[in-house]
Write a structure and sequence with these properties.
This protein is mostly helical and 262 residues long.
Length: 262
């Protein structure tokens, strides 16, 4: 206990100093805490991956706005390498767009990217929206006495780190088989999966920027700003804008009229 108290002394002195100078203390300005606040702000306010070493908007971790939400980064040390990027020099030496295609065909001498992807019009899938687009789901098994057992909580930490959303199973960017059968049922199908089925070059090229509580008023201020796409160095993408939960289903008369009559 004494050792723990000694370790908190520098933090306490820093807070005391800030209080003396400013009359208050912002805990996020405390050394050691600031980095944690930056991570939380990036994931939950800016809706960008909490861990993103090259700051290209893509990550190697799944949760905290990582690859559950956006295609998995294949090189987190080079911002030119990310899902949806146009290949660098045909991706002869490296897989710059993370679609699993790289190298040189020995028979033709052409890059595999050119052989497999040229002329196929690769394109990504991007969702901008609210909790419906993010596939928010609060498992009823957590609250039903008849369903309570350890198995329904086995993925609790993962689910909380993804804001109780399931973008990896969503209609826009679902990209994996359902492995959460204890708390969410049904097969997975999505626009992204259809695009990938049509063209393997679209592999990993998805972004789900669905935000719980999102609405049209916050679309320009935070949601759109979280979109990562470069018109010159990235492939085109389909963009689906969805704001249903708070803009249509809010019970306000003018919203219902707009939804019915446009």
């Amino acid at each position: 206990m004494e050792a723990a108290l000694r370790r908190t002394q520098p933090m306490y002195q820093e807070v005391k100093k800030m209080r003396q100078q400013h009359g208050y203390a912002d805990i996020c300005n405390i050394p050691g805490i600031k980095e944690i606040c930056d991570i939380i702000n990036r994931a939950f306010n800016s809706h960008l991956p909490a861990e993103d070493l090259d700051k290209d908007g893509f990550s190697t971790i799944k949760t905290f706005r990582g690859s559950s939400w956006r295609g998995k980064d294949c090189n987190d040390l080079d911002s030119r390498h990310h899902p949806g990027a146009r290949p660098i020099n045909g991706d002869v030496l490296t897989d710059s767009n993370c679609n699993g295609i790289s190298g040189l065909d020995s028979e033709t001498g052409l890059p595999y990217e050119d052989l497999l992807c040229n002329g196929t019009e690769p394109r990504g899938m991007i969702l901008l929206g609210d909790s419906i687009g993010a596939h928010f789901h609060l498992p009823p098994q957590w609250f039903e006495a008849k369903s309570l057992n350890p198995s329904v909580f086995k993925d609790l930490l993962f689910i909380l780190e993804n804001e109780i959303d399931w973008p990896e199973l969503s209609a826009a960017t679902g990209h994996m088989n359902n492995t959460f059968g204890e708390v969410i049922k049904g097969p997975v199908d999505s626009i992204y999966m259809r695009l990938r089925e049509r063209n393997r070059c679209n592999h990993r090229d998805y972004q789900n920027i669905g935000v719980n509580g999102g609405r049209s008023g916050s679309m320009n201020s935070t949601i759109v700003r979280s979109l990562v796409r470069n018109r010159m160095s990235d492939y085109p993408a389909l963009v689906n804008i969805e704001v249903v939960g708070n803009d249509v289903c809010n019970g306000m008369e003018f919203s219902l009229q707009a939804a019915m009559f446009g």
